């Protein structure tokens, strides 16, 4: 039996939410042995998401976890942190083996990525395209297949300057480090989490042909103004978005 990939997707209400989740659902239809943990940043579970999950028949868990009120007003928000931490609790209560991957709803995933991460022993990593203005975030791998450095457009004194989409962690490690969560520090969620997991660079399993291939992109869906919105004056919005 294949190890199960527990794919954690934080999501929040906006006009692009269902389109983004539809695309991700249709990606996951092509992936065997996946369990999709969709965690809404919302006070209640959305019926539209519940029906989407039911319709596609992908094994799933539908949860909610709101961003703490004190972060909602800040300009730089710890986006998706409460959601991912709720999923870590769920994994710790329900799973014995497999791999955890944090898959945001708006990224683009090549299905080959999932077979790269499937047999992760501790932590595996690979490149992510379209991260920062330089367009790439990646581990740097030497000729012995060891991660010796990182390439990222925003190093920011991080030990692990990687994107959320650029690594997976075994369920075993998440169970061993039972008190580790993602920190509420915008920009430092990945680094803080990996440091607390006590990962050493030598533990990292480089994937995607020694980190030479891109199987995931940090795409961002532009925000849209639905055409049936009314303006402040009550008039129908005339734009084409
Ligand atoms: N997200 C969330 N609550 C928010 C903002 C974002 O749950 O208030 C989710 C979002 O759906 C995505 C993840 O957190 O899966 C990262 O957010 P986003 O894609 O906006 O961040 P970026 O890619 O710009 O860093
Ligand atoms: Mn995003």
Explain what the structure shows.
- By secondary structure, the protein is an alpha/beta fold.
- 27% of the residues lie in helices and 21% in strands.
- It is built from eight helices and twelve strands.
- Strands 3-2-1-4-10-6-11 form a seven-stranded mixed sheet, sandwiched between helices. Strands 7-8-9 form a three-stranded antiparallel sheet, with no helix packed on it.
- Strand 1, helix 1 and strand 2 (34-40) form a beta-alpha-beta unit.
- Helix 1 packs parallel to helix 2.
- The protein is globular, with a radius of gyration of 18 Å.
- The termini are far apart.
- The relative contact order is 0.16.
- The structure holds uridine-5'-diphosphate and manganese (II) ion (MN).
- Manganese (II) ion is lined by residues 104, 106, 220.
Give the bound compounds.
uridine-5'-diphosphate, manganese (II) ion
Average pLDDT figure: 95
Main β sheet profile: 7 strands, mixed
* DSSP helical segment count: 8
Strand portion: 15-25%
**Helix/strand structural class:** alpha/beta
- Radius of gyration, in angstroms, nearest whole number: 18 Å
Q: How would the global form be characterised? A: globular
Lateral strand order in the biggest sheet? 3-2-1-4-10-6-11
Give the termini separation: 47 Å
Order of helix and strand elements from N to C terminus: EHEHEHHEEHEEEEEHHEHE
Number of strands: 12
Query: How much helicity do the residues have?
Result: 25-40%
Regions with little confidence, pLDDT below 50 for 5+ residues? none
